[in-house]
Specification:
The chain has eight helices and seven strands; from the N terminus they run βαβαβαβαβαβαααβ. With 256 residues, it is α/β, with parallel strands linked by helices. Helix 1 crosses helix 8, helix 3 packs parallel to helix 4 and helix 4 packs parallel to helix 5. Bound molecules: nicotinamide-adenine-dinucleotide.
């Protein structure tokens, strides 16, 4: 039995990395899927990568824009008629620098995408789900939403904010049978992590990667599929009694 049969899933930041891998898994589990990302070219590449299946819609939009957010929700409803799963995943890493040296424009951009974007998505998707009397939202936080680390204060701040957003939303909509949870990966092999590795030590990203992997109890980075498997569980009815929860998927990193 396919776990997302007859469900419609909306994934932001869906053209690459964890979002793209989750789309692949969702499609294989019977969902129809909308991918939202910044650029049409990247979305076309992603659709090709997924085999251009029926039941895939791509929308170019910036999650931090109110107008774009209204549009990606409206177009999903026009095409598929409902939204059962919302993977609120789009995010950026910001710059690597001590807090005192961070530029306020960079802080604002990280907050705009990671917090305002996630908030706007909830504002427009939750009314659809409460109207349906069912739905599951998975907010993308990070290990950086559970503990601190040096030189990425804007990112850490934004990912802690996603925890507050998750708890606030979960309590508001629970009586409508809508669930809201967050996921908290440790480093995952994606473009974003590559950029952070280079930011920590320019030209020596591979060494940074090895050092970081050694801090993870299971001894390796996550792969996008490791995260997608948890997102699938939270998206499906297997997690019907779980809401307002924070899920590490981190090789044991949060435990230490
Ligand atoms: P990625 O860079 O591979 O993918 C992120 C996608 O989001 C990209 O396709 C990008 O174009 C899109 N995006 C960025 N800004 C956007 C915007 N304003 N509107 C729409 N789309 C936008 O990175 P990833 O590692 O797959 O990251 C996905 C999420 O996972 C992020 O929220 C990130 O913070 C989180 N995360 C990643 C890691 C990791 O180690 N890679 C760990 C913990 C959490």
């Amino acid at each position: 039995m396919k776990r997302l049969k007859d469900k419609v899933a909306l994934i932001t930041g869906g053209a690459a990395g964890i979002g793209l891998e989750t789309a692949r898994l969702f499609l294989s589990e019977g969902a129809r899927v909308t991918l939202v990302d910044l650029h049409d070219d990247d979305l076309s590449d992603a659709a090709r990568d997924l085999g251009s299946p029926d039941g895939l819609l791509t929308i170019a939009a910036d999650v931090s824009s109110v107008e774009d957010c209204k549009r990606y929700v409206a177009q999903t409803l026009e095409t598929f008629g409902r939204i059962d799963v919302f993977f609120n995943n789009a995010g950026i890493e910001g710059k690597v620098a001590p807090l005192a040296d961070q530029k306020i424009e960079d802080f604002d951009r990280v907050m705009a995408v990671n917090v305002r974007g996630a908030f706007l998505g909830l504002q427009h998707v939750l009314p659809v789900m409460t109207g349906q009397k069912c739905g599951s939202v998975i907010n993308m936080s990070s290990i950086a939403g559970l503990k601190g680390s040096p030189n990425v204060a804007p990112y850490i701040t934004s990912k802690h904010a996603v925890v507050g957003l998750t708890r606030a939303a979960a309590i508001e909509v629970a009586r409508h049978n809508v669930r809201v949870n967050s996921v908290h990966p440790s480093p995952v092999n994606t473009r974003m992590m590559r950029s952070l590795e280079e930011g920590f030590n320019p030209g020596r990203g591979d060494e940074v990667k090895q050092q970081l992997a050694e801090t993870i109890p299971l001894g390796r980075y996550g792969e996008s599929l490791d995260i997608a498997n948890l997102v699938l569980f939270l998206a499906s009815d297997d997690s019907a009694f779980i809401t307002g929860a924070q899920y590490p998927v981190d090789g044991g990193m949060a435990a230490g």
